[in-house]
UniProtKB/TrEMBL annotation:
This is Site-specific integrase. Signal peptide: none annotated. SUPFAM superfamilies: DNA breaking-rejoining enzymes (SSF56349). Residues 69-253 form the Tyr recombinase domain. Keywords: DNA integration, DNA recombination. InterPro entries: DNA_brk_join_enz (IPR011010), Integrase-like_cat_sf (IPR013762), Integrase_catalytic (IPR002104), Tyrosine_recombinase_XerCD (IPR050090).
Length: 253
């Protein structure tokens, strides 16, 4: 499939992930038919192209597509610029702040119901996640205050839309409907960031920024950070290890 469609490794992993979640459901509901999910047994790097793949693609005049990890961080004044632009746009601001302060994925944010938010315990419970596992997401103090204010001001509106915290999704769990909502929000925020004077920022970069801040501002272990961010494989967090280089240096003579 890789050679025929010439898919990027990230696209291959997304398709594998979608199918794997279907198989996860089968293993939970019909273990007598499928006791183990074979797609969860794929070795790391399965989506990468081999040397043989490169030669086959070169024979057809094509180049190998490789992973391109984005490392876009918010500059010192960029968060303030975005917040100022969203000052009178409460829905967009809440979505932006949720992603930036919790490391939640866009879909995890905009599909939230108010019942998932526990302001007393300062947590958000996520039942439907990308990797199929539920998790508790802790809320920093500024996020608790913002959520409390938003829920208080929009309580009636939230109730009228079926307890959905934000208005960007109609409650349809169909994959295609969710994909459309995600695409529309990505386009909307690309425009917001540009108009706020923060060009080149993607919404998904906020998850990267939030994860970086967990490493920079806390002493949480990789395991605990993975529980917050929802990374199933801790090895995916290795790219953030350098952010604690100064911590390691402090232990040397």
């Amino acid at each position: 499939m890789k050679r025929i469609d010439h898919l990027a490794p990230g696209t291959i992993r997304k398709r594998q992930g979608a199918l794997a979640r279907c198989f996860d459901w089968m293993t939970r509901k019909h273990a007598e038919i499928m006791a183990q999910n074979p797609l969860r047994l794929l070795k790391r790097g399965f989506a990468s192209y081999t040397e043989a793949d490169s030669e086959a693609l070169a024979a057809h005049g094509k180049k190998v597509r490789v992973d391109e990890e984005r490392d876009r961080r918010l500059a010192d004044d960029e968060e303030a610029k975005i917040v100022a632009y969203l000052q009178d746009r409460a829905d967009e601001r809440l979505l932006f702040e949720l992603a930036l302060h919790t490391a939640m994925r866009m879909r995890e944010c905009y599909t939230l119901h108010s019942a998932q938010v526990n302001l007393v315990k300062r947590t958000i419970f996520l039942e439907r996640t990308k990797n199929g596992s539920s998790r508790q997401v802790p809320l920093p103090t500024p996020m608790v205050a913002l959520l409390s204010e938003y829920v208080s001001k929009h309580r009636e509106t939230i109730a009228n839309r079926g307890d959905r915290l934000l208005p960007f999704w109609d409650g349809n769990l169909d994959v295609q409907a969710l994909d459309v909502a995600t695409r529309n929000l990505s386009i909307r925020f690309a425009r917001i960031f540009r108009l706020a004077g923060v060009p080149g920022l993607h919404f998904h970069d906020l998850r990267h920024e939030a994860t970086c801040r967990l490493y920079e501002r806390t002493t949480l272990s990789d395991v605990l950070i993975a529980k917050i961010t929802g990374h199933k494989d801790i090895r995916m967090l290795r790219r953030y290890a350098s952010l604690r280089g100064s911590d390691l240096a402090a232990h040397l003579w």
